[in-house]
Structures are given as structure tokens and as C-alpha cells.
Amino acid sequence: MAGSFYTDGGDFLTDYEGISGRESYRGDLAVTYLPCLAVPGGRVLRLRLVPFRGRKFRLDRATHAEAAWLQATLDRESARFGTHVRLDDGNDLSVH
Description:
The chain has one helix at residues 64-78; strands at 2-3, 29-37, 44-55, 58-61, 85-87, 93-95. The protein is of the alpha+beta class. It has one domain (2-95). 16% of the residues lie in helices and 34% in strands. It contains 1 helix and 6 strands; from the N terminus they run E-E-E-E-H-E-E. The chain starts with a strand and ends with a strand. Strands 1, 2, 3, 4, 5 and 6 form a 6-stranded antiparallel sheet that branches.
């Protein structure tokens, strides 16, 4: 079993900051995906999401309230696929 992750910097830093009218979508929030994969085979054993908030082209870890908003949104949208997202004590998310 090995862990690995990939992220594209464009998922975090965007030039949309300051554009009004879409604040309810929380474009300031992003996650990095940290899968734990089975080797061989590549089956996903665990998937951890670490939430961040971008502001002034800087990334900070999301607050508990921001992580809770992401958890509720992702859980609601993924439930129809039989997937659930949980928030842990460290403000990280896990996919089940």
C-alpha cells in the first residue's frame, strides 16, 4: 500500500478573486486530494481532502466553519452516488 497525490496549482490559485455575483459558490475554497492506493492495482483505499482558502493569491488552511461548509456541500452533492463526506477533528475531509 502506498500513498500519493497530484494537484494542479490552477485548482488553488485563480484570477477570479474580486469578481462579484458568485460568492455563494465559495470559489475561495479548494481542496487537495490525498488518495491512499493499493499497490498493485491502484484501487483507492482511502481518500482524504484537505481544505484551503485562497485570498490575495495566498493559501491558508480553511477554518472549521469553511471546512464544515465544504463537507455539507460535497456530502449533499455526492449522496446520490452513494458517497458520503465526513469532517474530522483536524478539519480534513474523508470520502466514504
